[in-house]
Every structure is written in C-alpha cells, then in structure tokens.
Amino acid sequence: MKSSMIILAIILLFVSSLLPSLAFASSYAFISNQLDNNVSVIDTANNQVIETVTVTGKPVGVAVNRQKSEVYISTPIGDGFSVLDANDFKIKRKVTTSNGALGIVSDHQGERVFVADWYENNIAVFDTYNFQLLTTIKVGKSPSGMAISPDNRWLYVANRVDDTVSQIDLNTFKIRNTTKVGTHPFGITIDQDGDRIYVSNVESDDVSILTTASLKRVGKVKVGSRPYASALALHDTLLFVTNQDDTTVSVIDTQTLTELRQIEVGEKPEGIITHPDDERVYVANWFDGTVSVIDAKNLTVTKTIKTGDGSRAFGQFISQQR
Predict the structure, then answer these.
(1) Has residue 20 been placed in a domain?
(2) Is position 6 within any domain?
(3) pLDDT tens-digit profile of 105-130?
C-alpha cells in the first residue's frame, strides 16, 4: 500500500510538471500582414504557420478576446475591423467604424472592443454581442496604442501627434487625466499589478514610465531608433521594446530602469507580445515578413518564422486557450 502511494505521488509530480506546457499548447499568434491583406496563424506549440486568413483593408491592429474566442483585426483601408473566430480561423463578420481604424483592444471581460481612429481623433466603443456602437470618446491627435488596466476600470491611450497619454474612466467614458510624455508615443504596456505604464516614444527614442493612478512620470529610458511597442516578461522584470530603424529589440531592467542590451531581430520590428508562458517574446518584423521568437531568459532569438508581406501585428496578438 505504501509503495503504491509513493508511485502515485511520483506520477502526479510528473504530470504537474507538464501542466504549464500543456496549458498553453493551443495558443496561437495572429499576425496581420498589411501588404498581403491577410493574417498568418502561428501555432505557438511548434512555431509553425498553420493557416493564412484573407483580411482585406490593409490589416494592422490585433486584439484577442479570450472569453469569446474571437480576434479583432483593424483594417484602416477597410473602414473598421474584422471579427475572426479564434477556433476555426474563419471571418465571422466585418464591423464599420471609419477609415482611420488603427489601434484596437478588447476589455478583460470580453464585453467591449475599443478602436482608435487615427484621423478622427477618437475612440469608438463597441459591444461584443452584436457589435453595436456604444459611444465615441474624443481624445488627442492621432490616437494609436491602447491598454486596459487589470481591474478593467481604466483605458490608456497614446495620442501620437499630441505627445500625450490619456486616462479614460470606463464607467463614464470620460477622460480623467492627460499627461505629456516623449515625442510621438505609440505603443503602451501595463504591468500585471496595474501600477506602471510603459510608453514607447517613436521620435524621442525612449520609453516613458508612468504611474497608472495619476499618470505621474517616474522615469525615462533611452533605447534604439524609433521604438514602436513593448512587452513585459519574466514576472514583469524585463521590458522588451521594438526599435524599428535599428532592427533590434531593447531589453530594459524594470527595477533599475536601465537598458541591458539590444537583440538583433528582423528588419523594421513593430508588434511585440509575450507568450502566456511568460518566457517567449514574439516580434513581428514589418519589412522582413517574419516573426522572431526571443527566449526571455537567455535573451537570444530561438526561431524566425516566415509569415507574410508587411507583418505588423500591433496589439495583443496571442490567444490563451486552456
């Protein structure tokens, strides 16, 4: 009896050691290929492209709704965004907003999707049940990157031409605060605790660090040329930033706020996200039409995946299915 219990314990220990990899075995990366008018679907278990989905309208932004297994893809030339089924990779519908749709994000409850209009200087808010327009929120000039706080209370928007970040109350859809950052902010990342915001400033070649509560500026880190977007990894200890004109990704220590090194990736890196395993960082390379996979522990590129012409994948482009 005792020996049977020991064997059972060993089996359970072995199975539990496999759970992290099994839990994310069906995670997919959805890469918008702007010049090919399609989206590449990468199975992150083996880093292979398993499907290519036609999405007309020059797709750029990507937002995954994990609760509803949907992917929203902004189409600036298509006057809105497409809704993709994250399970069978079929387009379910197209939603019309305007011809300036760029940044896109879904809330954490999967009930609303927010679309930044580059030309109209507003955020369109849609429900995700029948995709009715709920409201539009006037923000700064040329809104681009967006991020939602972990508690689903606040929406943060980078207003590129205004050099500002706005904080929007998602209960009232009113702007609570707007703060100056670097020159031409684009991508925004929030840490898991909801304490800090990292803003990539394209023209001043740096990353601004703000508090989420009051948008107080707490630091700024110089990176490479024309930083576009960023992603946190290894329990938020490292920030990875795509430098468009340097074909590199900067690695920042979030405790000391110093750049540790720059990693060579493909040409014109743009979209970036960390896999749910918190150890792999995926980078879309616009000019190469590839995706680079970075090992966050070793800070090396472990895989380069051929995708399509004009791979941008701006936003949260990896699903997390268990």
Answers:
(1) no
(2) no
(3) 999 999 999 999 999 999 999 999 99
Q: What are phi and psi of 244, to 5 degrees?
A: -55, -50
Question: Does residue 215 lie in a domain region?
Answer: yes
Number of domains in the chain: 1
Give the CATH number, domain containing residue 161: 2.130.10.10
How many whole angstroms separate alpha carbon 317 and alpha carbon 104? 11
Domain-located, residue 19: no
pLDDT at residue 1, rounded to an integer: 46
Structural contact between residues 37 and 52, judged by C-beta atoms closer than 8 angstroms: no
pLDDT per residue over 275-291, tens digit each? 999 999 999 999 999 99
Residue 322 has pLDDT above 50, yes or no: no
What is the span of the domain harbouring residue 158? 25-316
